[in-house]
Amino acid sequence: MGKVTVAVAVIGGAAVCAAAALVVRHRMQISKQCVKSADILKELEEKCATPTSKLRQIADAMTVEMHAGLASEGGSKLKMLISYVDNLPTGDEEGVYYALDLGGTNFRVLRVQLAGKSGIEFQEFAEVSIPPQLMVGTSEALFDYIAAELAKFVADESEKFRLPAGRQRELGFTFSFPVLQLSIDSGTLIRWTKGFSIGEMVGKDVVAELTKAMERQGVDLRVSALVNDTVGTLAGGRYDNKDVFIAVILGTGSNAAYVERAQAIPKWHGPHPKSGEMVINMEWGNFRSSHLPLTEYDNTLDAESLNPGEQIFEKMISGMYLGELVRRVLCRMADEAALFGDTVPPKLKTQFILRTPEMSAMHHDTSSDLKLVGNILQDVLEIPNTTLSTRKIVVEVCNVIATRGARLAAAGILGILKKTGRDTIKDSEVPKTVIAMDGGLYEHYKEYRHCVKNTLNELVGDELAKHIKLIHSEDGSGIGAALLAASHSQYI
Fold first, then answer.
1. Main EC class of this protein (predicted)?
2. Which of 86, 101, 185, 229 is catalytic?
3. Active-site residue 191, yes or no?
4. pTM above 0.90, yes or no
5. pLDDT of residue 408 exceeding 70
6. Which one from 176, 289, 305, 360 is the annotated catalytic residue?
């Protein structure tokens, strides 16, 4: 019995030693994973670096491209599109107007009652998701779907929004894709962005397509104004604040518009507007420069996108792509550093499975154990039981990608300030520059929003920063479209 007892004791001791050895090896393995992941993270930080000197170079390059785009059609990657909006809202607009805001994977329909100096008396809206298959289907299917939703919205019009007898309802159409504007109420599609790809629509008049769809659906609406979302945001911002000079969208996609002197637009061949000004839709998402801190992740994302070689700036700063960039970095860490175990989690290989809202939530997790990060990794990517060190690496990847995007957006704004001479203090009468900001990325991603503001202040300096203000123009593009429909009404 004693021998058996000894044997059992020896076997038990060996088992304990073996278990201890396994724990040590496991810890060493985790350590190696973290070290390799840290190396990949350090490399990412270096390639995404945006020191002030680089941001100034990017802003200068933006200014150069703005000049070239204003000089001639096709003179720059920046389209610098003439909007035909030469008068922004004054606050005197009255009546009931509709707006359709098509900006990405959702669209909004609005109905507003304008009451002159009293402002917006009533407004109602509905938001509708676009089925993914319609984003790559036919133009008729897409516009019929939109017109059908418009028909439902108009049919639900309450008594207080009734128009006088014989008066046709008028609509401002915010179409947030590159369009060559032909007049205030017509324009041909240059190309799709933000996941849309309907080839037959390119080169067609988007107002004509919407009008035909509304006729098929029996909707009695006239499109009075076709505007880009940034132009709409600029109009909506100006309605509330006379110092609004620039509008920037940071949402699914990204773009900017600003007020330019008519004399500074060499490619404008029409009569100079009485105001002496013209709103320019920059289409800055298509900006690119050798100074942009592009990485292997950006290059592969672009190569595998629906529009390779296009919208490079947008792919670095906007909500559609930030989460996907994070996924690509994590995928490399999983593959080369076994960050999530011996195999790459299958879900992590799925493009665009990690959306920017989840990235934002992880970035904002302030709990000591980063529990929310763990939950998102498990729920979205099906990666269970992650360690705290792994979660910290994930948060840092989110931080690097978001910070680069926000700082590049601020550099773009500086480029506009430089082009319009508002980047320096030349005399005691410094014009106040208000920048209307809109888009879900700017509105909901707090760290990103704060970084944009802080970086712009860093670039212009404390003294000038006192004269530059970023304001959130909530739903500015939709309200702005309704306002521009009012100012270009057939009944005025």
1. transferase
2. 229
3. yes
4. no
5. yes
6. 176
Label residue 33 by pLDDT band (50, 70, 90): low
**Which CATH number do you get for residue 161?**
3.30.420.40
Within a domain: residue 373? no
Active-site residue, 144 included = no
The residue among 27 and 447 whose pLDDT is bigger is 447
Query: Which one is catalytic: 111, 191, 328, 404?
Result: 191
Catalytic site residue 176? Answer: yes
* Three-class secondary structure assignment of the chain: CHHHHHHHHHHHHHHHHHHHHHHHHHHHHHHHHHHHHHHHHHHHHHHCCCCHHHHHHHHHHHHHHHHHHHHCCCCCCCCCEECCCCCCCCCCCEEEEEEEEECCCEEEEEEEEEEHHHCEEEEEEEEEECCHHHHHCCHHHHHHHHHHHHHHHHHCCCHHHCCCCCCCEEEEEEECCCEEEEECCEEEECCCCCCCCCHHHCCCEHHHHHHHHHHHHCCCEEEEEEECHHHHHHHHHHHHCCCEEEEEEECCCEEEEEEEEHHHCCCCCCCCCCCCEEEEECCHHHCCCCCCCCCHHHHHHHHCCCCCCCCHHHHHHCHHHHHHHHHHHHHHHHHHHCCCCCCCCHHHHCCCCCCHHHHHHHHCCCCCCCHHHHHHHHHHHCCCCCCHHHHHHHHHHHHHHHHHHHHHHHHHHHHHHHHCCCCCCCCCCCCCEEEEEECHHHHHCHHHHHHHHHHHHHHHCHHHHCCEEEEECCCHHHHHHHHHHHHCCCCC
Count of the separate structural domains present in the chain: 1
102 part of a folded domain: yes
Higher-pLDDT residue of 419, 22 = 419
Give domain status of residue 2, yes or no.
Answer: no
Query: Which has the minimum average pLDDT: 114-123, 231-240, 439-448, 469-478?
Result: 114-123
